[in-house]
Design brief:
By secondary structure, the chain is mainly α. It contains 13 helices and no strands. Helix 7 runs antiparallel to helix 11, helix 8 packs antiparallel against helix 9 and helix 9 runs antiparallel to helix 11. The longest helix is centred in the middle third of the chain and has 25 residues. It is globular, with a radius of gyration of 20 Å.
Length: 264
């Protein structure tokens, strides 16, 4: 299913000449963020060629700026570079879905903001989506609905993947490692997490996520960026991950097979 931007009518009329205008703008930082913004908008209306050209324009300007100035730490350069490479490779891959392209460019845009922002970061706008996904995952465990559990957990992991590099920028290493280890455990040991009626792991994760988002919200967001926040939030309605379900199903089948052999 395609996701449509709230600003679809505006994005459609943007000409290819827009790329050159912003690529050569006087404010380098705003220019970089504008290129990322517009790449995302083009991706939302399935204009991948334009999105790719904007990302390539960003690459040229960013690396020149990184070399010429000391505005970025090595960690920031590495994190931005990884997010950029994942975004550009996804855009170029014709086998990737529109959703995957949008998610990767969104992730790239958010990490760029995390580096540049002095106020509340854009990734903090996904608080409600992520906390809601965690809560719905808990409910599915309570109801022992295995299909819903897979769907809700996959949704939670998709959002987490989008903000992952931004967390590495804005969250302390100790807190980031704590929540990331918790996420990885829940994903890897899905059958155990699902069978735990006390929901210890999910309750603990939800508390960690709340702490991270509340810390990020202490600063006020730049009012000029609210259109990006609204637009970003609009794409967090993800398709279900069949791969995730297959992984759980395989584990479940193995467990049943083992029990049958024991009974036999």
């Amino acid at each position: 299913m395609k996701f449509k931007s709230l600003f679809i009518s505006i994005a459609i009329i943007i000409s290819s000449g827009f790329i050159t205008t912003y690529a050569n703008g006087p404010d380098k930082q705003n220019s970089l963020e504008t290129l990322a913004d517009q790449s995302l908008q083009f991706a939302k209306v399935d204009r991948r060629d334009e999105a790719e050209r904007l990302l390539e324009a960003f690459s040229d300007k960013f690396y020149d700026q990184a070399i010429e100035s000391s505005n970025y730490t090595m960690d920031e350069i590495n994190i931005i570079t990884i997010a950029y490479e994942e975004a550009i490779q996804t855009v170029k891959n014709k086998e990737k879905t529109d959703d995957e392209v949008i998610n990767e460019i969104t992730k790239f845009r958010l990490v760029l903001d995390a580096v540049h922002s002095d106020g509340a970061p854009l990734w903090a706008s996904l608080k409600d989506s992520m906390i809601s996904a965690a809560g719905e995952t808990k409910v599915s465990i309570q109801k022992q609905d295995s299909i819903a559990f897979q769907e809700k957990l996959n949704h939670l992991l998709t959002i987490y993947n989008i903000i992952y590099p931004s967390l590495k920028i804005d969250v302390t290493p100790e807190r980031f490692q704590q929540v990331d280890a918790h996420i990885q455990f829940i994903d890897q040991y899905r059958p155990q997490v699902f069978s735990d009626q006390s929901q210890t792991d999910m309750i603990s994760l939800e508390e960690q996520l709340r702490d991270i988002f509340e810390e990020a919200e202490k600063d006020d967001a730049d009012p000029s960026l609210w259109w990006v926040i609204i637009s970003t939030g609009s794409i967090i309605i993800m398709t279900l991950s069949y791969v995730g379900w297959r992984k759980y199903k395989a584990s479940d089948d193995q467990l049943h097979t083992k029990k049958k052999k024991q009974n036999f």
